[in-house]
């Protein structure tokens, strides 16, 4: 039974395939066969193919996605007064919309109101008043645009929202910190920018007895270059 | 403090120098393309929201100066400079009629990457942890990884350095799982507002698993779980669960 079915299928296959083959050969029989595809010995082909290998040049286009710079400003350390802050930042621009930024900064805490008024023993020793932080943040260029100064000058700008995590060394301890803020980048040229940043550094501390979340507001001006 | 300022000043100076060298190198190595679309639009800045202020006609030559994210700064033969999107620059041809090859990393490169670096953040037995890592792949599936972590807890803080072997089962998957096994050191110091205890230094070992997911270009996302054992000098070893998520790039 099985062999009969196979015979039948084979017959059908041949019946369909063979006329097809005949059709394939049809054109050639009518003189459309390319003449002498293989040159006989001693005979040169009419056209000598002269294929020059194309030289592939891979362009080395300089990329400018990194931005590095320094900043200085003021930092209000909760309960410990306001002082100057300065630091450096490095950013990488992933797309025109998003970037990541790492920054380190340093400031110094003053005296609490209690320390100044009561004249009692200081709460912190001198080295514990050093305030150092690092942040790892992601930013979004929310409002890119231009500002026009006078008739002939236009500068590219971007207002960005930025936030991230990091660590703050204060009171002799490393404290996990969250930062969030907004910044304004003004490009003086294609590769130099001025930054104006407002940032809130938040961390939990029990320096003054009870555990609480402190907000430490920073405002700074920065200068960066792209490379 | 003084030293810190001096060091910062020195690094900025070095960077400026490097920048100047880069600028000089760029000037010597300019690349020209021919506009093949009806016209090429020049924006005032590297972004879609910056307005188009100039167009260059088909057949004219432009010089590609530099690239920022997906935007290219070009100069027309009349000296106009502006920014062109990646899509438009890809539609141009080189002076010999060759298509522009930007040699951008893709998913294929993700599978066969050699160097990888990234940052991660998460939870380390109830404390917060921030990690920086770098890895070198010996083969497509086996990599050697160095991780430095900062552990920030309510009772103590610590610095942690580990070296691990990372095995990726199927490197060519877009989301690809891996195993990790390693050892290192952890330096723990108690919080100063608590009892002034001595700083401790202990050996630590871990076994863990994670997932890498290719995002775009040279970027990936990564999540990881590690089961750590801290070999303390006390009678009992300490076991710490660690969960992290992060962002990395390869090159």
Describe this structure in words.
The complex is a heterodimer of chains A (227) and B (251). By secondary structure, chain A is of the alpha+beta class. Chain A is elongated and about 110 Å long. Chain A is built from 2 helices and 9 strands, in the order H-E-E-E-E-H-E-E-E-E-E. In chain A, 16% of the residues lie in helices and 52% in strands. An 8-stranded antiparallel beta barrel of chain A has the order 2-3-4-5-6-7-8-9. Chain A has 2 domains: 1-32; 66-226, Porin, CATH 2.40.160.20. Chain B has 2 domains: 2-94, SH3 type barrels; 109-250, Porin, CATH 2.40.160.20. Chain B has helices at 2-28, 86-90, 107-111; strands spanning 31-34, 39-43, 52-57, 61-68, 71-76, 81-85, 93-94, 115-124, 127-137, 142-152, 156-168, 175-190, 200-216, 219-231, 238-250. With 251 residues, chain B is mainly β. In chain B, 15% of the residues lie in helices and 56% in strands. The chains are: A alpha+beta (227), B mainly beta (251). Chains A and B meet through strand 1, strand 5, strand 6 and strand 7 of A and helix 1, strand 4, strand 5 and strand 9 of B.
Helix content of chain B: 10-25%
Q: Give average pLDDT of chain A, whole number.
A: 84
Q: Remind me, CATH topology of the largest domain in chain A?
A: Porin
Which strands sit side by side, in order, in the main sheet of chain B?
8-9-10-11-12-13-14-15
CATH architecture of the largest domain in chain B: Beta Barrel
Structural class of chain B: mainly beta
């Amino acid at each position: 039974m099985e062999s009969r079915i196979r015979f039948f299928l084979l017959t059908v296959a041949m019946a369909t395939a063979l006329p097809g083959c005949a059709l394939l050969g049809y054109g050639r029989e009518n003189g459309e066969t390319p003449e002498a595809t293989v040159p006989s010995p001693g005979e040169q082909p009419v056209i000598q193919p002269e294929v020059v290998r194309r030289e592939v040049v891979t362009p080395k286009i300089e990329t400018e996605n990194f931005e590095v710079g320094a900043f200085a400003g003021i930092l209000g350390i909760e309960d410990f007064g306001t002082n100057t802050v300065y630091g450096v930042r490095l950013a990488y621009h992933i797309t025109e919309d998003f970037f990541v930024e790492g920054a380190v900064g340093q400031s110094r805490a003053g005296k609490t109101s209690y320390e100044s008024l009561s004249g009692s023993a200081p709460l912190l020793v001198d080295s514990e008043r050093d305030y150092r932080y690092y942040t790892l943040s992601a930013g979004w260029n929310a409002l890119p645009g231009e500002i026009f100064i006078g008739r002939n000058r236009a500068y590219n700008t971007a207002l960005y929202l930025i936030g991230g995590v990091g660590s703050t060394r204060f009171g002799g301890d490393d404290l996990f910190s969250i930062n969030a803020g907004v910044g304004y980048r003004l490009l003086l040229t294609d590769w130099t920018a001025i930054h104006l940043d407002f940032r809130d550094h938040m961390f939990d501390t029990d320096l003054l007895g009870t555990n609480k979340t402190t907000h430490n507001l920073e405002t700074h001006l920065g200068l960066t270059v792209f490379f | 403090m003084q030293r810190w300022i001096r060091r910062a000043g020195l690094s900025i100076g070095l960077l400026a120098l490097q920048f100047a060298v880069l600028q000089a190198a760029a000037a010597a190595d300019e690349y020209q393309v021919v506009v093949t679309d009806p016209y090429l639009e020049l924006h005032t800045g590297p972004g879609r929201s910056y307005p188009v202020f100039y167009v260059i006609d088909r057949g004219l030559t432009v010089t590609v100066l530099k690239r920022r994210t997906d935007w290219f700064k070009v100069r027309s033969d009349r000296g106009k400079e502006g920014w062109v999107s990646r899509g438009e620059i890809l539609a141009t041809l080189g002076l010999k009629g060759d298509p522009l090859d930007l040699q951008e990393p893709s998913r294929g490169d993700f599978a066969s990457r050699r160097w990888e670096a990234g940052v991660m953040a998460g939870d380390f037995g109830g404390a917060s942890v921030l990690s920086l890592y770098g890895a070198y792949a010996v083969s497509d599936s086996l990599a050697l990884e160095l991780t430095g972590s900062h552990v920030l807890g309510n009772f103590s803080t610590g610095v942690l350095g580990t070296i691990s072997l990372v095995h990726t089962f199927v490197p060519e998957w877009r989301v690809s799982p891996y195993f990790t096994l390693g050892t290192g050191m952890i330096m723990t110091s108690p919080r100063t507002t608590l009892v002034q205890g001595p700083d401790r230094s202990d050996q630590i070992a871990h076994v863990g698993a994670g997932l890498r997911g290719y995002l775009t270009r040279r970027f990936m996302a990564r999540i990881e779980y590690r089961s750590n054992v801290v070999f303390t000098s006390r009678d009992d070893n300490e076991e710490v669960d660690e969960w992290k998520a992060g962002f990395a790039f390869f090159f």
